[in-house]
């Protein structure tokens, strides 16, 4: 874990209230890990957790939604502004365990950590399922890394009208990976377990410290409560206690 101050080289709104932030530097991270990010002195006390969207030679990219005071401040960042980042944090995806035909399922901003994962899974046959409320974002660049991309929108403006879970047939895959709203991940995990298909989920609980000290982000597992930031955010669906 490293705390550094870096320069912003891009902060672009790619959809309504969805921004792509790129920070200059030499970074290393596993798909599924995150950084704690802060760009203020007099704003919120704590930094905000943002998952790794991509890692390239000249920097690291984050995809975030404007949902509160902290992310609103992020949205105002300009090129060459300074930003403090701490990480990488958390346990990401174990690429060695991901093999065969894989369904990657995202809901909304859940596409953020899955972008980097898909690019790193060079030996797998991947179908991508993306669910959105209305506007579609963060998908176009992934066509060349996947066999199929299936999209659903709740209003029917693009692709299937309805929920992404209505498109998924877990029994057609060796493994399913998902990230998105908790209710969606619960549904996907239950569908997979009912068909005895291995499933991994990237949890998106609220976090405060990012290092497992404050216990704000606990989630229920069969072995008791676990810290999403330290023990996750990636969990095997078989280990979680699902409420759906």
TrEMBL record:
Subunit composition and interactions: Heterotetramer of 2 PyrK and 2 PyrD type B subunits.
Protein encoded by which gene: pyrK
Organism: Clostridium ganghwense
HAMAP family attached to this UniProt entry: DHODB_Fe_S_bind (MF_01211)
Protein role: Responsible for channeling the electrons from the oxidation of dihydroorotate from the FMN redox center in the PyrD type B subunit to the ultimate electron acceptor NAD(+).
Annotated CDD domains: DHOD_e_trans (cd06218)
Listed name of the protein: Dihydroorotate dehydrogenase B (NAD(+)), electron transfer subunit
Binding site for FAD: 48-51, 70-71
Organism taxonomic ancestry: Bacteria, Bacillati, Bacillota, Clostridia, Eubacteriales
Associated pathway: Pyrimidine metabolism; UMP biosynthesis via de novo pathway; orotate from (S)-dihydroorotate (NAD(+) route): step 1/1
Domain of life of the source: Bacteria
Pfam families linked to this entry: DHODB_Fe-S_bind (PF10418)
Residues where [2Fe-2S] cluster binds: 209, 214, 217, 229
Domain FAD-binding FR-type: 1-95
Similarity comment: family membership: Belongs to the PyrK family.
